[in-house]
């Protein structure tokens, strides 16, 4: 029996279909001892997304986006969050989507995009898979102001931050977004090869 065969969906009831679908799922789950249990979970069905680390090795800066996030506001954390550029795939392939998002949010045209890995953001309750990318940039790649799409009411502040200062912002609590923390740590680990 494969791991996935140890679980069987009994029911999947849609609770809401607003900005994302929320469902109540009942499943029969077989534990490691072979006992079957009926579990009930609420799941947010998020579409896939992508994020990108834009890094200028010559200036040793990363390009970040600062924008309002309602969940952060609701938890009492800083509502204007500092993040790597990111967005939903909207039916596109991950690389195509992240090229679009980088341009919309930051004004940087990315040339050499490198896929790094994908990760589930909150696998206990959310189906969202994020595709992580890296792209080297320089000043010549900034071809517009960025700031997001007016028709989507995006109000994004573009930030160019020295890599070490961005990492320090994690410890100070200024950066609390998981995908951004992951990408900044990846950059620190790989800094020597990125600057070569």
Describe this structure in words.
The mean pLDDT is about 90. The N and C termini lie far apart (about 50 Å). The protein has two domains: about 5-45, no CATH class; about 50-195, Nucleoside Triphosphate Pyrophosphohydrolase (Alpha-Beta Complex). A hairpin with an 8-residue loop joins strand 8 (about 115-120) and strand 9 (about 130-135). The relative contact order is 0.18. Strands 4, 5, 6, 7, 8, 9 and 10 form a seven-stranded mixed β-sheet that branches. The chain is an alpha+beta fold. Helix 3 runs antiparallel to helix 4. The chain has helices at about 70-75, 95-105, 165-170, 180-195, and strands at about 5-15, 20-30, 35-45, 50-55, 60-70, 80-85, 85-90, 115-120, 130-135, 155-160. The radius of gyration is 19 Å and the shape is elongated.
Could you write a compact summary of the structure shown?
This protein has two domains: 4-45, no CATH class; 49-195, Nucleoside Triphosphate Pyrophosphohydrolase, CATH 3.90.79. It has four helices and ten strands, in the order βββββαββαβββαα. The protein has helices spanning 70-75, 94-106, 163-172, 178-195; strands spanning 7-17, 21-30, 36-45, 49-56, 61-68, 80-83, 86-88, 114-120, 129-136, 157-162.
